[in-house]
């Protein structure tokens, strides 16, 4: 039982090249986003196989119904069920500080293009599995894998400024226009448009907002660090530091309360005094080595030591772009 998503990789690559020429990608932002994608695959990508095994075991043991893959109803239930699970995960990740610490990686870019879809939090990937596991009660693992891959392809293509509107489909689908609002950093755009495939759940549950002007992208306080390891860990580090001396309800509020209740933690304030642009020797070559390691791990050709070496290569490639500054 294999993940069909890797077969879409050539399509993603072509899309990145075409949009990159049109939108004039920032080389620094591109390096950071590629690094984030590689870190996610090294730390969490291999976990999909474990999750699918658990998903299949739960389905075989306690699924009250058996929906045949050959029936249209099965795929309708799978797509709608996936979107409900994703909406729940996505909304929780914006409303619970510790989950926001995992998801924030995806929102750090102050640009909006296909490279943003590469910025996935490694911890967030593991967290999504808890929300998707209940789907095992109604669909089997191969159906889940197919729908999840389709969702990931769909979500890749909504991260663009090139498509302004999809006309009548704006009423139903989570289009690029709706998702641009979701990535806005101003108060009017926060906690809006959580949907994965569809926007209907946002409309029904009061979290929908229409795009009436170009949002200001990123996170409150801004974020300019290139290092994927810093991007994935800095809010967790702040949470641990802020927990010292707290007990009981205060500690629970800190970790499980809404991010706006912990403004000093949720705002990034992670600017650098001088941005360094990538070079072949210092950035792209070590980054390529890290990506190669991530691919080898995804393919099952490498183990933990290659993973550690790849993480170090990615950090060497990107941390050099953060010449100075403090969190």
Number of strands: 0
- Secondary-structure-based class equals mainly alpha
Q: How much is the radius of gyration in Å? A: 20 Å
Shape type: globular
Average pLDDT reading: 92
Order of helices and strands: HHHHHHHHHHHHHH
Q: Tell me about the largest β-sheet.
A: none
Provide the low-confidence segments as ranges: none
How far the N terminus sits from the C terminus, by CA atoms, comes to 43 Å
Helix residue percentage: 55-70%
What fraction strand? under 5%
How many DSSP helices? 14
Keywords:
mainly alpha, 57% helix, 327 residues, globular, 14 helices
Write up this protein.
The model has no long low-confidence stretch (mean pLDDT about 90). The protein is built from 14 helices and no strands. The chain has helices spanning about 10-25, 25-45, 45-60, 70-95, 95-105, 120-130, 140-160, 175-180, 200-205, 230-240, 250-255, 265, 280-300, 305-320. The N and C termini lie far apart (about 45 Å). The longest helix is centred in the first third of the chain and has 24 residues, at about 70-95. Helices cover about 55% and strands about 0% of the residues. The chain has about 325 residues and is an all-alpha fold.
Walk me through the topology.
Elements: H1 9-23, H2 27-45, H3 47-62, H4 72-95, H5 97-103, H6 122-132, H7 141-158, H8 176-182, H9 200-205, H10 228-242, H11 248-256, H12 263-266, H13 280-298, H14 304-319
Helix pairs in contact: 2-6, 2-10, 2-13, 2-14, 4-5, 4-6, 4-7, 13-14
What's this, in brief?
This protein is an all-alpha fold. Helices cover 57% and strands 0% of the residues.
């Amino acid at each position: 039982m294999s993940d069909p998503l890797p077969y879409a990789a050539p399509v993603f690559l072509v899309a990145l090249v075409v949009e990159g020429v049109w939108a004039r990608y920032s080389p620094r932002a591109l390096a950071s986003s590629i690094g984030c994608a590689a870190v996610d695959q090294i730390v969490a990508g291999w976990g999909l196989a474990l999750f699918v095994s658990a998903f299949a075991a739960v389905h075989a043991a306690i699924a009250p119904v058996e929906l045949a893959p050959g029936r249209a109803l099965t795929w309708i239930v799978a797509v709608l069920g996936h979107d409900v699970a994703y909406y729940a995960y996505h909304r929780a990740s914006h409303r619970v500080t510790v989950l926001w610490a995992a998801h924030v990686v995806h929102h750090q870019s102050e640009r909006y293009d296909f490279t943003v879809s590469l910025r996935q939090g490694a911890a967030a990937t593991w967290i999504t599995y808890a929300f998707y596991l209940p789907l095992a009660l109604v669909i089997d693992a191969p159906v889940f894998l197919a729908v999840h891959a389709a969702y990931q392809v769909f979500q890749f293509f909504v991260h663009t400024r090139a498509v302004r509107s999809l006309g009548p489909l704006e009423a139903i689908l989570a289009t690029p226009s709706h998702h641009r609002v979701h990535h806005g950093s101003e108060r009017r755009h926060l906690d809006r448009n959580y949907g994965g495939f569809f926007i209907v759940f946002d409309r029904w549950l009061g979290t929908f907002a229409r795009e009436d002007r170009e949002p200001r992208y990123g996170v409150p306080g801004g974020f300019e660090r290139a290092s994927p390891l810093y991007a994935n860990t800095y809010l967790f580090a702040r949470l641990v530091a802020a927990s010292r001396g707290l007990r009981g309800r205060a500690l629970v509020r800190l970790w499980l309360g809404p991010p706006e209740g912990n403004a000093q933690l949720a705002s990034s304030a992670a600017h650098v005094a001088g941005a360094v642009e990538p070079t072949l020797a210092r950035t792209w070559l070590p980054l390529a080595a890290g990506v190669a390691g991530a691919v080898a791990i995804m393919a099952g050709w490498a183990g933990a030591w290659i993973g550690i070496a790849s993480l170090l290569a990615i950090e060497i490639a990107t941390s050099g772009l953060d010449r100075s500054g403090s969190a």
